[in-house]
Amino acid sequence: MAAGETRWERPSVFPRREVKWFTYLAVVGFFLWSAWDLGAAPGRILEGVGNAAALATDFFPPEATPRQRTRIIEKMLESVAIAMISTLTGILVSVPIAFMAAENISPRPLYTLNRGLIAISRAFNAIIVAIIAVKAVGFGPLAGIITITFKTVGFFSKLLAEDIEDIDMGSVEAVRAAGGSPIQTLLYGVVPQIIPRFAGLSVYRWDINIRTSTIIGIVGAGGIGSVLLTAFNRYDYGYVSAILLAIIAVVLVAEGVSAVVRRRYQ
Amino acid sequence: MAAETPRWQRFDRRRRLGRFLALLLTAVTVVASWQFLAIEFVTLDTVPREVADLLTRMYPPDVAYTPTIIEPLIETVHIAFLGTAGAIVLAIPVALLAAENTTPNAATYWLGKVLVTVSRSVNTIIWALIFVVIFGSGPLAGAVAIAFRSVGFLGKLLGEEIEEIDFGQVEAVTATGASSAQTLLYGILPQIKPALVGLSVYRWEINIRDSTVLGFVGAGGIGVQLFRAVDAFAWQSVSMILLAILGIVIVSEAISKQTRGMVR
Known about the structure:
heterodimer; A: mainly alpha
């Protein structure tokens, strides 16, 4: 074989074969460590499957007395109401933060500060935020509104800021060249370019907020979640599955509405 | 001004009406929601004070608490990792069912869609409540909950990826006399491998964030310590735990971004 000839090898993201095997080994090793640490023995899993089969008969059929049914409806309305209000408040808070977190129109220190705020909002699960909100303002929907507003800011500001960074700076300069003040530049140069995405994002976030508002009740921040937790604690599994069905139904409707609206806007 | 020069308007009458109605509907819904929740403005003005009070109690974070939270932190990463691994195993068949070109018939297609929908509509914390009953409290229940929640996400996106593949290659493998397992291994899998790796790592990153709260329902992880500290009003410990969570979330995000950049 001539020295210049090389064997064909499958294209790979790894620079060397050793690196590849090392990576695979590390992943498998970590997997085994995890399984051992969590006690995920096959016997325990099988036992769980047996328990699940026994439990399945408790879950079916879903049942709720008329009183429980009105309770589900009432608390579900509370969840939806929380989602509605906090989508609005969340967006209102997000807009200025998004502008300050856009690299192309915001000064550097302000940019860093707001990006940090966004990172914090995204890092913590809604349940953690809710628990702290409940400790701060007490049980009830107000804690839920604060939680979802806070979570909305991380999501909405981040995506809106990315859209602002993608805009055509030419039209911004044009408005400025015509003698527009900074406010006018923002209103007539930047805002018209992000409005279409704005609508889609709002509806998308509303959909996510509906999902979130159905669980934060577990820690006392209002909505259907509290009813679910109570039912679980009473081992009333027929009621649990009735509540779960209600949650799935509401989530599906929200997702459907959001998909339709986004398709019409984009 | 002559009557025949109309004023320029951005929208015609129908769209203006539509926009006005949409705005009105939004306003009415929000006001009605506010009324329904019966939150009084009196309680509202105490909110900034209460939050500020809590934040001052949290400062400074209790650094001496760090050794106690290292082990639960590792457990959290393990839950996310094992849960994601379980989800991949479960999601591949679900994705094959939920993809129009690989599903055997209409019934299996709908089965795939239903599995994806149920998994996605039920939050991780609710799955955890269910699996704590089944496996007893502990991190194993958490890992299974994470797996069941992730199946829908991975199944849906992998299914969409499978629908995009070049079916010629699959037919070529079948034409050589390959069994259905071999077709899957050599015809389909190589085409979705980059997506599989990318999506798995992305989901792992989400799962790290999700598994930080499993402790609230007794499903293990850093959440156990967090909620214990909250209940004890040990706010400086709470802020230390929050910082630790922020740390692992940022690290996992960086790993995920790096890996996804490599396989794209």
